[in-house]
Amino acid sequence: MPDLNPISLLSTKTFDIIIAGAGLSGLSLAWYLAEGNYKGNVLLVDNSFAPHNSKTWCFWANHKPFFPEIIYKKWRKSYFAAQDYQSFLYMNEYAYYCIRENDFKEFVLTKLRKKSNFTLLEEGILDIYGSKKKGVLVTKNSDTYVADFIFQSIIQPESSKKEHLKYPLLQHFYGIEIETEDGIFDPNTFVIMDVDHSFDDGYAFMYVLPYDHNRALIEFTVFSENVLPKKEYRKKIRTYIKEKYGFGKKEYKSVRKEFGVIPMDDRPFEPTLDVNIYNLGTMGGLTKASTGYTFTRVQRYSRLLAGSLINGESPQITNPSKNRYRYYDKLLLHILSTSVPESRRVFTHLFKNNSVDEIFTFLNEDTSIVQDLKIMNSVPYMPFFRAIGNNLI
Ligand SMILES: Cc1cc2nc3c(=O)[nH]c(=O)nc-3n(C[C@H](O)[C@H](O)[C@H](O)COP(=O)(O)OP(=O)(O)OC[C@H]3O[C@@H](n4cnc5c(N)ncnc54)[C@H](O)[C@@H]3O)c2cc1C
What we know:
FAD/NAD(P)-binding domain, globular, binds flavin-adenine dinucleotide
């Protein structure tokens, strides 16, 4: 890539920081910078700042949740069901929270619009590259912007492309938010997993978020390498609604749809794309490999990163996972990639033999070694021995 000479710098617009992509990770970084009264000039670029409401972000927390002002719904009780085990799971330490994409966007953008050092640019990004001194962003209109650092969540690093992965697994799901005349849902209990034993092309389950007695998001989720045609997810959801709640297609109203594909793979943590270009969010490897959950990790990462920038230090980038958790994730990915029945047995034992608080602490990577051993002791050994055999180096 060309180095910027002083003449080309004159014809470009210069910022201290550019945030390329204003989704979860770009907006989170901007939020923590604004909250900490970062004094530099920040350019935030995205295709669109308009509301979408195509996502709901859920996460669990045993402390005051992130963004308490915009929590849409909170649960302390969940339900797990598999063929040979069903149970309500009560949270004592944690609560499970949900934030809607639109609320988050609006909340962050309202704050940024009040800050004169933040510029929002609604344009497509064509390219991002680093030079010795600056990061360079080129828009689809061929405008050029430079900054000391660019933080990006739109370009996939080479190392996370499918051909470099051992377990290129995806979490893919389609959800329909439905409204019914009568109240049929228990708004205090969300369904964390209702395992689908009739689906064999991946570990599959229903996930249900009841927002009210008569409104819920019902999502069919699969962990496998290939996305399904949309009509297959829809068929599964229709059958589930009929079997579980007794409602036919004409007896409820679809008010929103949600489709997602999240990587659940063994990509390395890749903090930089080029000189002065830093990766954020899913592109940066912040999605937890074995669960697809990203929200909490993005908050933790962005807060530290913003803190270093506010203090005038070089960007603080810390691997979101310790080595041992990355190894555990790999073992589970091996099981999920090789055997659906064993995946079902592992999840069933996990929920049967541990409290949901213990599981959430483990998935947050906040456990001690002793707690790790208790979790490992609670699931069938053989699939893990085979996974270890396949991951000796
Ligand atoms: C439907 C769905 C539901 C999810 N639910 C959860 C959940 O409940 N909990 C959880 O922890 N995780 C969840 N995730 C996973 C993860 O939290 C989200 O994918 C999250 O949005 C990732 O954040 P990001 O910043 O990496 O990417 P994004 O939020 O996708 O942000 C990328 C941004 O870049 C912009 N962009 C892309 N290309 C260009 C371009 N060329 N020019 C300009 N702008 C561009 C896009 O418009 C977008 O705003 C979910 C994912 C999906 C898809």
